[in-house]
Amino acid sequence: MILGCSLTAVAQPKQIKERIAELKESAEELDLIDRMYDVQLVIKPEEVPFDEEDAFAFTHSVKLKSGKEVLEALKTKKVYQDIIAPYSLLQIGDTDLFDWNSMLGVGNFFFDEHPDYMPKLILKKVYFADGTVQTAKEVVVENYEKILGEDKSRLNDEFFLIKSTKSVESLEYEVALKNTAVQTAVFKKDQTEQLMNGMRISVKSWTGKEVGFLFPEHLYKEMAGMDVLYKDGRFLDQKGSNTSNLPPESKRKQLQEISAFYKETARMAEKNKFTGLKDLEDYLLKNVPKIDTVTPNDVLKNYYFSGPPSEIRMYFPVKTPAEARETIKNNRIYSRGIVFKREIATDFKSHKQGVMDVGGNWIIKPVYERIYNQNDYFFLVQEKEDGPSSYYWLNEKGDQWVHLKNIEIYRNELYGDFLVVEEGTNGPKGIFNIKSGQMVVPPVNDNIYVEDNFFVIRNNDKITLLDAHAQNILSGDFESVRIDEPFIYVLPKGANAFSGYHIYNKKGKNITGQFISDGGWESGSNLVLVYKKGKGEYERHYFFLDNDGKVVITVDPDKYVQTERFRNNRALLKDKNGMYGYMNEKGTVVIPFVFTDASEFRGKYALVKQKLPTGSTWIGLVDETGKQKKKFEEWPYYISFSDEENTWIYQMNNGIRYDEEGNEMHRVQ
Question: What are phi and psi of 523, to 5 degrees?
C-alpha cells in the first residue's frame, strides 16, 4: 500500500517503529512503480492462481498476420449490392474495425493507436452481369456523404457508391497493407537478453512462477504482439483482455520525490529527530510532496497463460514500413434473397421500391413501400407504410405482375420450378409453378413436404407421391410412405410391419409381387431384402430383388436361418450351425462362417466375435475381406449412431468409447 498522511494520536516508541516500517514500505512500493516504467511485462503460468486483488491485469496479444494471410482472408468476403436508383451501394462484408482486427490476428491492439496498420481497399474495376466493365474513375461517386446524407464511418463495412443500377457480377479492388513486416525477439529459458530496434530487452527472471522482462516504455508501445509456446509445441489460446496504463511520464519525477521523502523521513525518525509520533505526523503533513495516490494495480501489466512456457516471441514493426499490395477480383456477390435475374431497387428521390432487371432497368416501377424478393418470381410486397404485406408473382418476361391475394409461401425453398404454398397462414397447402404462374396442386391439402426429391402430399387419410416434375407416382389410402433411394416403402391401410410393406420403384411400379418386406432401411443398396413365410411361425425364406422386382439372389433356407440387408456391399448371414459370415451382392460368400457372433457392417468395418484355435476369443472389427483391424477387450454393451459426431459408437462397460473405425474417443463416466 502507499500511505497518505493519516494521523495517529498516541505517541509510543512501538508506534513510531511501526510508522517507520510503513514509510519504508510505501517507499519500496513507489520504487516498484518507478521500475514499472522500465519493467513492462510479467508472465505468470496457470499454476499461479489469478486473484482479482492481485496487482496484475491479464491481457493477450498475438503476432500480426502477414499481408498474404490477410489477402487470403479478404478473398472469402461477400459483396453486397443495394440499388438506390440511380446509384448502387457496394459493400464488402465483414471488413469493419472488429473484423480487420481478426484478419490481422491482433488482440490487445487498436488502429487508433497504430494508424499505419489500417488496411486500405482501393476499387479498381466493376464487372457487370451484362458483360460490361467500368473503371473506378468512370463509375465511383466521390461525394457520397452529401448524397447519402451520412458519413462513411456510420457504415460498418468498406463500401463504394457507384453511378449505376446494373447488377454487379464482380469487383476488382486493390488491398494495401502497411507496416505488417515485423522483427522477432525470441526468448528461451537460457537466454537473458535481446537487442531490438537498437534497444536492449532483458529477461528479469525465469522461474516456475513468472517470467519478467525489462525494456523502455516506448519499446513496449511499439510491440505489435506476442506469442507464447508451450513445452509440447502448442501456442497459447487467448484468455481475456484487460488493460492498465502507467501514470504519465511527467509524474515519474514526482513519484521519485515522494519515495525519497519517505526514505529520508524514516531515517530521521530512526535517529530520534522527532519528539514523538505527533511531531512525526505533523512533519509529514506539512512537508510531503503533493501527488495523487497511485498503486501497483494501476501500472503493472501481465500476460496470463497456461504454462509454464518454453519460448516467448515478441514482435516489433520494422523501422522501414513494409507494404503488401495485391489486386483481388471478388465475384462473391450476395443480394437479399435467392436472386439471379431481378433486383429490388429503391428510388433515390421517392424512397419507394420496385424491381429491376440485371441491366438496371425498371421492370416494376418504384411505387411500393417495401419489397422482399423470395426468388426471381415471388415477391412479398408492402404497398403502403404500416399496411399489410402480400405476395406478387412476376412472370419470366416481366410483363405480368399478378397479385396472389391470400396465397403465401409455406416452404421458401425452390424445388425446380415449384414452390410449396398455403392459402392463408397455416392454411391448406398446394404447389405453385413459378414459371407458368399456375397452381399445379390446389391448396386443399393438410401438408406437403419434400423427401429425396419427391413431393409427399397428405390430405385426410390419402397420401400422394409426386416426382420432381410434379407428376403423379402413386396415390392411395396408406398408413405411411417412406423413401429409401432407390425404393419407396408403402404400408397399406390396416397393415403393419409384420403383415408387410409394399415396395415400389421410382417409376411407381409395385415390385413386391408374392413377397413380403419388413420395411427396413436398405441404406443405398440397389437390392431390396424380401421374404416368404416358411412352415414354422417364425421361419422365413429370404430373397433379394432389383429395382424392377427381379429376383437376383435366393438365400438357401436349408443352409441359412438369418439374413440381413447389404451394408458396404456385404450382407450378414447365419448358418444352421449358428455361425456367421458375409456374402456380396452377387450372392457369393466372401467372408467365411467363422464367427460365433457378428453384426452388419457399420461404415467400413463389422463387429465380430471369433473362437480362436488357442481356445481364446477374439472380439473386434474386421474389414470387407474379414481381416482383423481393431481388437476390443469385450463385446460393447451399447452401440449407437451419433449424428453430432457422424459415426457409429461402440461403448464399453468401463466407459471407453470407440468410433466406427476403432479409434478411441473420450471416456464416458
Answer: 55, 45
How many structural domains is the chain composed of?
A: 4
Confidence of residue 326 (pLDDT cuts 50, 70, 90): confident
The model's confidence at residue 65, banded by pLDDT at 50, 70 and 90, is: low
State the amino acid at position 653 in one-letter form: N
Last residue of a domain, one of 154, 179, 204: 179
Sheet holding 438-445, edge to edge: 407-415, 418-423, 429-433, 438-445
In what order do the strands lie in the sheet containing 589-595? 560-567, 570-575, 580-583, 589-595
Residue 7 in domain: no
Q: Which of 400, 429, 445 is the last residue of a domain?
A: 400
The angle subtended at Cα 295 by Cα 289 and Cα 301, nearest 5°, is 135
Residues 380 and 299 in one domain: no
Cross-strand partners of 504: 488, 510
3-state helix/strand/coil string of 252-278: HHHHHHHHHHHHHHHHHHHCCCCCCHH
Same structural domain for residues 313 and 202? yes
- For the segment 270-283, what is each residue's pLDDT rounded down to a tens digit? 888 888 888 898 99
Residue-wise pLDDT for 203-212, tens only, equals: 766 665 566 6
Residue 63 scores a pLDDT above 50: yes
Q: Using CA atoms, how far apart are residues 223 and 663, in angstroms rounded to an integer? A: 44
Residues contacting residue 102 through CB under 8 Å, at least 6 positions apart: none
What number of other Cβ atoms are within 10 A of residue 137's Cβ?
9
DSSP for 368-419, please give it.
ESEEEESSSSEEEEE-STT--EEEEEE-SSS--EEE-TTEEEEEEEEETTEE
Which structural domain range is residue 366 located in? 345-400
The answer to the question of residue 298 being in a domain is: yes
> How far apart, in Å, are the Cα atoms of 84 and each of 124, 184, 233?
21, 49, 53
Q: Are residues 56 and 148 in the same domain?
A: no
Same domain, 85 and 46: no
- Together in a domain, 192 and 274: yes
Q: Give the pLDDT confidence of 583-598 residue by residue, as tens digits.
A: 999 999 999 999 999 9
Q: Are residues 55 and 203 in the same domain?
A: yes
Mean of all residue pLDDT scores within the chain: 80
